[in-house]
Amino acid sequence: MHTGEQYHNLILTSRRDRVVRDRFQKTALDLLPEGADVLDFGAGTGIDAKIFAAKGHRTFVYEPSQAMSEYLTRYCSDDIDRKSIVTVTSPLACKVQAVTANFAVLNHFASHTLLFEELSRVVHHGGFVLASMLNPYYLGDARYSWWRANLINLIRHGHYAIESESRIHRFTPRSVARAATPHFQLERLTPRGFGLATQLYMFLLFRRG
Prior knowledge:
Blueprint: H1 4-13, H2 15-31, E1 38-41, H3 47-54, E2 59-62, H4 66-75, H5 77-82, E3 85-87, E4 96-101, H6 113-119, E5 123-134, H7 145-149, H8 151-157, E6 159-161, E7 169-171, H9 173-180, E8 184-190, H10 195-198, E9 201-208
Parallel strand pairs: 1-2, 1-4, 2-3, 4-5
Antiparallel strand pairs: 5-9, 6-7, 8-9
């Protein structure tokens, strides 16, 4: 188990993670209207939040892990003092144009139905939820026995859980989209086609009706 500082340093020094994070941040910023508020759901140590705030978006941060939250408070102290970053103890404590959930935050949920219902009270009509999730079709994981053993569960049920301390779940995009309905509609999936076999993370964009 990493401390907040260990996680922060690890993810900033990982070239693969930096590429994914940069792409996620650019996608979110391209979608956000000028000056729009955003909720960073599962904000970690505040890496994304700091970027959003620097671009003029007041950013609410929700992070249930105490270790992560404590380091976020240190890392983003200046932004918190300026109130360009606002810590919240519940995602329901704000009303925003968008919710971002980076680096597999939604993979820690066994089901997303209640989550999307709650987020529908947070996101303005016409706003969006952008999530990066672990890609269940990524062939780089085929070397692991748990991936091969769960293929039938993925086909039959659209999801499965990996036995571990964190009990990470993998979902097909269709199963997440089904859970989001009727509050959100899946507007974009990246990558598509063959890219789903070659990239560890997939980006899902949901639009609030």
